[in-house]
Amino acid sequence: MAKVTIAIDGPAGAGKSTIAKRIAELKNLLYIDTGAMYRAITLKLLNNNVAIHDKDRIKTILENTNIEFIEGSIFLDDIRVDDEIREPRINENVSEVSAIPLIRETLVGLQRKIAENNNVVMDGRDIGTRVLPDAKYKFFLTASIGERAERRYEELVKKGYGCNYEEVVKEITKRDKIDSERVLDPLQKAEDAILVDTTGKNIAEVIDIIMDEMKSIDS
Ligand code: DC
């Protein structure tokens, strides 16, 4: 079978992970959530009280960290951390952590290795531009800030975190700013990515758009 590589990028709350997971099921591909990898490193730095400017300690941490996806879960040093990496303290710090060059370099290398050995659908911020620039299928998902904040708010409330909508708007706006203005691999639509605005669309509608676009690329 020919190699299949699908890159899905976009800002927080655009629906990337829900859509990417579903596409992976439909096309029998491995789903890689690269945001979860940046979150896992953030968790490790916070748990070890490492300051984000402490390059030496970050280097040591990276050399002694193992991140793996097993059956849809993410493991940090052999411990499943699916829930911890979604905590508000991670949301508050992950953008700053993911702007650190050494961290990006390490995780991009790991992501490319996974994609070399598997048929993948990978979501993130720089998949189409940097991690897998040769991916055959590239999508950039977006949605209005109001709708993205609403989705994130509902997700947090469902998990039992006390938060208010205005705070979520603020946090997402701040993350958008850091993610798109950082020097290294900023959040950016690849020139050849297909833009999909998910505002006002349900999951099934977005999946249909993506599956149709892939069919037309194939034909
Ligand atoms: O998709 P997410 O919200 O779980 O991502 C968390 C953070 O990780 C996001 O604010 C930016 C960073 N990230 C990144 O810099 N590059 C990626 N490929 C994926 C995520």
Report a brief summary of the structure:
This protein has 219 residues and is of the alpha/beta class.
Describe the structure.
With 219 residues, the protein is α/β, with parallel strands linked by helices. It has a single domain, classed as P-loop containing nucleotide triphosphate hydrolases (Rossmann fold, 3-Layer(aba) Sandwich). Helix content is 52%, strand content 16%. The strands form two sheets. A five-stranded parallel sheet has the order 2-6-1-7-8, with helices on both faces. Strands 3-4-5 form a three-stranded antiparallel sheet, with helices on one face. β4 (73-76) and β5 form a beta hairpin. α1 (16-27) packs across α9 (203-218), α2 crosses α4 (88-97) and α4 packs parallel to α8 (165-181). The chain is globular and about 50 Å long. The model has no long low-confidence stretch (mean pLDDT 94). The structure holds 2'-deoxycytidine-5'-monophosphate (DC). 2'-deoxycytidine-5'-monophosphate is lined by residues 12, 34-35, 38-39, 94-95, 98, 124-127, 175, 179.
